């Protein structure tokens, strides 16, 4: 497991180092924040939707963006760093494309090593403000809304494919917020993508404000 994290300033969390034998690299600094966005896209350069969401999130005060594939291209996750970021946040936002009915592999690895059973019970539940933590899932899919239905191409609603993530959040004591989904992500026009991003940004601002109220 990586060594414990250390703060380089009063509002930043960075890792103190990596395990012996791990490849050394520069790890981006993510500020401690009320809303933590986990941006998980294996091919961001070709992303039409999710990259815009990450860019929009970086413009919202009180929101930090943790780009997992940029930070951990070798899948060696600094567990202490990630747990410190989660502990500082009132809301965890998962942003990723749904491909082959699942989240990208690195997010599953993040769940496995960061939300380990012992940490789930002892440390995931409380937040810095003492209020319950929220989890909001934001995803896109190439399939149309009608494809995710009985008799459709995929045979069942998308929320059934997302159920393992919802259950993970609930086991960790998080309040599950209704997901924001963009269907037919490759086919919709630019105006629809822009509207989706605008709705995402507005909701992030609401979540930051809600966290501030809970913390008072």
Entry keywords:
216 residues, three-stranded antiparallel sheet, 20% strand, disordered N terminus
Descriptive notes:
This protein has helices at residues 50-57, 68-71, 79-88, 105-114, 117-124, 158-161, 163-171, 190-215, and strands spanning 5-9, 12-15, 30-31, 35-39, 63-67, 91-97, 134-140, 175-182. With 216 residues, it is α/β, with parallel strands linked by helices. The strands form 2 sheets. The chain has a 5-stranded parallel β-sheet with strand order 5-4-6-7-8. Strands 1-2-3 form a 3-stranded antiparallel β-sheet. Mean pLDDT is 84; it is low at 1-24.
Describe, in short, the structure shown.
The protein is of the alpha/beta class and 216 residues long.
Give the SSE map.
Blueprint: E1 5-9, E2 12-15, E3 30-31, E4 35-39, H1 50-57, E5 63-67, H2 68-71, H3 79-88, E6 91-97, H4 105-114, H5 117-124, E7 134-140, H6 158-161, H7 163-171, E8 175-182, H8 190-215
Parallel strand pairs: 4-5, 4-6, 6-7, 7-8
Antiparallel strand pairs: 1-2, 2-3
């Amino acid at each position: 497991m990586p060594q414990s994290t250390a703060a380089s300033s009063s509002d930043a969390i960075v890792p103190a180092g990596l395990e012996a034998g791990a490849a050394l690299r520069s790890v981006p600094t993510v500020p401690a924040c009320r809303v933590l966005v986990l941006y998980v896209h294996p091919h961001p350069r070709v992303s039409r939707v999710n990259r815009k969401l990450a860019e929009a999130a970086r413009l919202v005060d009180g929101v930090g963006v943790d780009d997992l594939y940029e930070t951990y291209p070798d899948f060696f996750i600094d567990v202490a760093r990630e747990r410190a970021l989660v502990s500082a946040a009132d809301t965890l936002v998962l942003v990723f494309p749904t491909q082959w009915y699942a989240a990208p592999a690195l997010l599953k690895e993040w769940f496995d090593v960061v939300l380990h059973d012992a940490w789930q019970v002892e440390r995931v539940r409380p937040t810095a403000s003492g209020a319950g933590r929220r989890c909001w899932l934001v995803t896109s899919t190439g399939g149309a809304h009608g494809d995710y239905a009985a008799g459709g191409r995929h045979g069942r609603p998308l929320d059934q494919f997302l159920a393992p993530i919802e259950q993970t959040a609930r086991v960790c004591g998080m309040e599950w917020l209704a997901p924001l989904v963009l269907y037919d992500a490759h086919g919709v026009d630019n105006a629809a993508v822009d509207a989706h991003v605008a709705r995402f940004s507005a909701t992030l601002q609401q979540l930051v404000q809600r966290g501030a109220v809970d913390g008072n």
